[in-house]
Specification:
The protein has 7 helices and 24 strands. It has about 425 residues and is an alpha+beta fold. It has 4 domains: about 90 residues, no CATH class; about 80 residues, conserved putative lor/sdh protein from methanococcus maripaludis s2 fold (Beta Barrel), CATH 2.40.420; about 90 residues, Elongation Factor Tu (Ef-tu), domain 3 (Beta Barrel), CATH 2.40.30.170; about 130 residues, RNA polymerase II/Efflux pump adaptor protein, barrel-sandwich hybrid domain (OB fold (Dihydrolipoamide Acetyltransferase, E2P), Beta Barrel). α2 crosses α7 and α4 runs antiparallel to α5. The protein starts with a helix and ends with a helix.
Length: about 425
């Protein structure tokens, strides 16, 4: 009976102590799990003071707690001097390779993907400046290769008769023309007649008569019944709008002919690579299917950029012997690029977190330190370091992300021990920012 009197109070004390412990522990847990704000899971930079939907993707906003925020700050903040020691065996297992930051000039070949286009300055439009009737056409289908002054169509138009008759009459009166008595014509009259011949010849050209037919009319002294529509250059017919029996009206466009002896090639360049390209730089164009190469040079860098990819277009000009390059064809462009001397490291040495770029420098044997850097040009497997490194610094060139993960693990261990103390401070900061 006496034993029961001692046991019952003991049990009540144990239960009471457990309850008090739970009660005292609860406020600390609630404080460390206080919601600071809500973020967009796709874009963490967006913050909200209350739960809801993300404005861009419609997903539920995710809460950020005080303890997780403190841990995240400690993990992401890798200050200079926070070294990480990795044993040689672990380095070998990770495949960690070291390299020196070197100052050197870069000259490499940049490979671009280009598309062939006809030069707009070499596309000629054939217009007809009078009303007429198409009698016939010959070898004028789209894509046909035509020679300069080759007859494409025959058009009848009465508008030419009066102008052509005036041209023949003025040409007969011009000194130097066949069967013209030079001694009976004064100098003033000769100049007037010569001007009249030139004016009527220009009028015939404006109506649509070719120089070849005007010369033929001058030699034969016969009034032509029809007008020959000829190709203005050696090239390919791009468009055709007439057919036999069709009536044409004044200023109708009949053909467009492209001279493809030279062509343009447009290629896209991304990022800072465009800064290393200059007009006049020679390039090599290769046809993937034919296995042939041609020479080209950069003509200009176009001012507009793609709104999605932010790529800049580079225009090259290439000779086109044998018309191997056709509009719409895709080709490879090899462009030699020279960059000024600068401090550079292997491309894999730089860790880009989005907010900053950093490298891991070997400060002593088997010990690595995170160091924030600013980068410049990137070419091949090298990237320029503008600030943050000195020449001769040894950096992690391979296995960098493993070293970065190891450093974050150390930072997480440090953050877990200090998160309780940092939670109230983080809560005050978040409250200040939200207000």
């Amino acid at each position: 009976m006496k034993k029961a009197l001692y046991i019952v109070p003991l049990i009540l004390c144990v239960i009471g102590g457990f309850a008090v412990g739970r009660y005292l522990a609860h406020p600390r847990t609630a404080s460390s799990h206080q919601v600071l704000y809500y973020v967009d899971p796709m874009h963490p930079a967006y913050k909200s003071a209350k739960p809801g939907k993300a404005p861009d993707c419609g997903m539920d906003l995710v809460p950020v707690y005080a303890d997780s925020a403190a841990s995240a700050v400690a993990a992401n903040d890798l200050p200079a001097g926070s070294g990480t020691e990795i044993a040689p065996g672990v380095q070998q297992l990770y495949g960690i390779r070291l390299a020196k930051a070197e100052r050197q000039a870069q000259r490499q070949s940049m490979r671009l993907f280009g598309r062939v286009q006809a030069e707009d300055t070499r596309i000629f439009r054939v217009d007809f400046g009078a009303d007429g009737y198409v009698k016939e056409t010959k070898n004028d289908s789209v894509g046909t290769h035509v020679a300069k002054d080759q007859h494409l169509a025959l058009v009848y138009s009465p508008d030419f008769l009066a102008v052509a008759g005036g041209y023949l009459a003025a040409n007969e009166r011009t000194p130097g023309a066949p069967n013209t008595a030079k001694d009976n014509v004064s100098t003033a009259t000769a100049a007037q007649n010569s001007a009249s011949v030139l004016a009527r010849a220009d009028r015939l050209r404006n109506l649509g008569m070719s120089d070849a037919q005007i010369e033929e009319m001058t030699q034969t002294k016969k009034l032509p019944e029809d007008v020959y529509i000829v190709s203005p250059v050696d090239g390919f017919i791009l468009t055709r709008t007439i057919s036999p029996g069709m009536r044409v009206e004044r200023m109708t466009s009949l053909y467009s002919v492209a001279d493809l002896s030279k062509v343009w090639i447009e290629a896209e360049v991304f990022g800072r690579d465009a800064q290393s390209i200059h007009p006049g730089t020679p390039a090599t164009v290769s046809l993937p299917d034919a296995g042939q190469t041609l020479h080209a040079s950069i003509l200009s860098i176009l001012p507009d950029a793609d709104p999605v990819t932010h790529a800049v277009k580079v225009r090259l000009e290439a000779e086109n012997p044998g018309f191997k390059l056709r509009p719409g064809m895709f080709v490879n462009v090899d462009l030699p690029v020279s960059l000024p001397e600068g401090l550079s490291v292997p491309l894999d040495a730089v860790v880009d977190s989005g907010m900053e770029k950093r490298v891991y420098v070997e400060t002593s044997e088997n010990r690595f330190e995170a160091r924030s850097v600013q980068t410049g040009w990137q070419l091949g497997d090298r990237i320029q370091v503008v600030s943050g490194l000195n020449e001769g610094d040894v950096v992690v060139a391979s296995g960098t992300f493993l070293v970065d993960s190891e450093s974050r693990l150390h930072a997480d261990g440090h953050a877990s021990s200090s998160s309780a103390a940092a939670a109230p401070h983080m809560a005050k900061i978040a409250e200040h920012r939200m207000n």
